[in-house]
Design goal:
The chain has 300 residues and is α/β, with parallel strands linked by helices. The protein has a domain of 112 residues: 3-Layer(aba) Sandwich (UDP-N-acetylmuramoyl-L-alanine:D-glutamate ligase), CATH 3.40.1190. It is built from ten helices and 14 strands. The strands form two sheets. Strands 1, 4, 5, 6, 9, 10, 11, 12, 13 and 14 form a ten-stranded mixed sheet that branches. The protein has a four-stranded mixed sheet with strand order 3-2-7-8. Helix 2 links the parallel strand 4 and strand 5. Helix 8 runs antiparallel to helix 9. The chain starts with a strand and ends with a helix.
């Protein structure tokens, strides 16, 4: 089973406008609602690609119930912990040429809820994969990723981590199966700017020296570079298309990589699958569809 953790799930309310006039009444031309959060995005794309997944995390109130029911309606299994107070957040994304976002705060996550999550994670075995993705709400301890990975250490669970800077650097000692910073985040971790392929490869290998097994660096329109645990670096380009949505593209790449690896056991194929899934989302208004994923895969 592939498990994903989303600490702060959301209903993403996406509103399309011809133009945004501050201080005035603005009327939407259309709108959509998605079930958001980086881990949920990964589960969503994995489900699209035909892999079974369980979404873990915390929900609260009527919005939490809507997230659970919405995921169930599209075939995604969730095993959320229900918080006694508050509501899961609503994120408003206003698209008017550019994109303006207003992200909600989310409910308070109690110590009892954290313990309940740990109890669920304790049931994972070496046959499972765990995806930890996204930032940490301010009601959780800053070292929650480290605490999870330390707790699971020695169980040979393959863990993918999609986080930034210290959140990522601090878990490398637990040897995550996969990490996926982008080229800008990679530079930030070393207080530099990665301007060339050689720069990216050098610093990605530094992350591998610190403990990561596989380092996947996404580079937007320039493709991606994978430093696999065995063998030489692999670089890949991107399919042709118009970018209409950046939200969830990185999560889709993680999902596609895992799906490709599980289906083929090959890092080359995993990289192709991850790139196809990330591109399929970037070229769509929502997350990747199976048809768009397959079309991207054929181009690579």
């Amino acid at each position: 089973m592939i498990y994903t953790v989303t600490f702060n799930p959301a209903l993403d309310y996406v509103v399309f406008l011809d133009e945004l006039i501050p201080g005035d009444i603005n009327r939407a031309t259309r709108e959509s609602i998605f079930y958001g959060g980086k881990g949920i995005n990964v589960s969503n794309v994995l489900n699209t690609l035909g892999l079974e997944t369980t979404a873990l995390g915390f929900v609260a109130g009527f919005t939490g119930k809507a997230i659970e029911e919405g995921l169930a309606s599209i075939g995604i299994r969730a095993d959320f912990i229900h918080l006694p107070e508050g509501n899961s957040r609503i994120n408003v994304k206003v698209k008017h040429g550019d994109e303006t976002e207003i992200n909600g705060q989310g409910p308070v996550i109690t110590d009892e809820a954290i313990s309940a999550l740990f109890d669920k994670l304790d049931t994972l075995t070496a046959d499972d994969i765990l995806v930890l993705a996204g930032s940490i709400p301010n009601t959780l301890p800053d070292d929650i990723y480290e605490r999870i990975m330390a707790r699971l250490e020695g169980k040979n669970i393959r863990i993918a981590v999609d986080a930034t800077k210290d959140l990522l650097l601090n878990v490398l000692k637990y040897h995550p199966f996969l990490i996926k910073p982008n080229n800008h985040e990679l530079g930030e971790m070393f207080n530099t700017v990665c301007k060339t392929k050689e720069d990216i490869e050098y610093y990605a290998k530094e992350l591998q020296k610190k403990g990561a097994r596989n380092v996947l660096i996404s580079m937007a329109g320039d493709g991606a570079i994978l430093i696999p645990e065995e063998g030489e670096a692999i670089q890949i380009g991107t399919p042709k298309g118009k970018v209409v949505n950046s939200v969830g593209a990185g999560d889709s790449m993680v999902a596609g990589f895992i799906a490709g690896y599980l289906k083929n056991g090959s890092y080359d194929e995993a990289l192709k699958s991850g790139t196809a899934a990330g591109s399929a989302t970037a070229f769509s208004e929502g997350l990747a569809s199976l048809e768009m994923y397959q079309a991207m895969l054929e181009q690579i």
